[in-house]
């Protein structure tokens, strides 16, 4: 079992604009069944976690439909509307407690931290992030929601081109937990 942060990013390290737009991303060419793409990745995933901005973007983008079949934890301090029948828990618990619940729910499968970057960072701070997968779009944004606002040391495991995207898969070598206890 491994915990992945799998995301697309601009070349200058932003995963959304300051207005939470992904227009710059959704217009890019990608083969969803190609190298390191979502189609294959998603099959390995047994549970998801995301922050409230990401959840609200998904709900806006999908017009209220929930496309994920895996149990999902949404981090928020607010009461958010949930789609009927979706397996979603709202939480503000410590990421360690949520991670343990996700592991129990995922069976043999892996965990996906969908975003944003700081939430992935919170899992890394607790020593719970194993891999970072980034699909870099050929765009710079200049500002926006940061990819992963932490100091982490990573090992490059795999690289691929998928049409317009440069895709990298990295193992977390040293995270917040290691840096606090060198
Ligand atoms: N490029 C991509 O592939 C990709 C992937 C994922 C996301 N995105 C986009 O990137 C943007 C990310 O937005 P973001 O940086 O604001 O991050 P986010 O993680 O989606 O949302 C941040 C919010 O989550 C809640 N939160 C985070 N940690 C929490 C904790 N420990 N306990 C309780 N609540 C917590 C807080 O909201 P409350 O005010 O509700 O408490 C916080 O303001 C979104 O626009 C999303 O659509 C892009």
Question: What is the strand and helix layout of this fold?
Answer:
Blueprint lengths: L2 E7 L4 E3 L6 H4 L11 H6 L1 E7 H10 L10 E4 L12 E4 L3 H12 L3 E6 L1 H9 L5 E6 L8 E2 L6 E10 L2 E10 L1 H5 L2
Parallel strand pairs: 1-6, 1-7, 3-4, 3-6, 4-5
Antiparallel strand pairs: 2-8, 7-10, 9-10
This protein binds NADP nicotinamide-adenine-dinucleotide phosphate.
The secondary-structure class comes to alpha/beta
Radius of gyration: 16 Å
Number of helices: 6
Query: Largest sheet, if any?
Result: 8 strands, mixed
Low-confidence stretches: none
| Large-scale geometry | globular
Would you list the SSEs in sequence order as H and E? EEHHEHEEHEHEEEEH
- Helicity, in percent? 25-40%
**Which ligands does the model contain, each kind named once?**
NADP nicotinamide-adenine-dinucleotide phosphate
Residues in β-strands, percent: 25-35%
Q: How far apart are the first and last residues' alpha carbons, in Å?
A: 25 Å
Short description:
With 182 residues, this protein is an alpha/beta fold.
């Amino acid at each position: 079992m491994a915990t992945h942060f799998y995301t697309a990013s601009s070349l200058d390290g932003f995963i959304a604009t300051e207005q939470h737009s992904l227009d710059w991303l959704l217009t890019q060419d990608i083969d969803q069944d190609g190298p390191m793409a979502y189609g294959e990745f998603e099959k390995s995933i047994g549970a998801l976690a995301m922050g409230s901005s990401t959840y609200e973007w998904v709900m806006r983008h999908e017009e209220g439909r929930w496309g994920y079949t895996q149990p999902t934890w949404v981090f928020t301090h607010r009461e958010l509307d949930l789609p009927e029948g979706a397996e979603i828990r709202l939480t503000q618990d410590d990421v360690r407690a949520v991670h343990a619940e996700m592991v129990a729910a995922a069976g043999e499968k892996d965990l996906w931290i969908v975003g944003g970057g700081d939430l992935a960072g919170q899992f890394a701070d607790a020593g719970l992030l194993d891999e970072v997968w980034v699909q870099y779009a050929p765009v710079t944004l200049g500002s926006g929601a940061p990819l992963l606002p932490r100091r982490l040391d990573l090992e490059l495991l795999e690289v691929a081109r998928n049409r317009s995207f440069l895709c990298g898969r990295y193992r977390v070598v040293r995270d917040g937990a290691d840096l606090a206890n060198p």
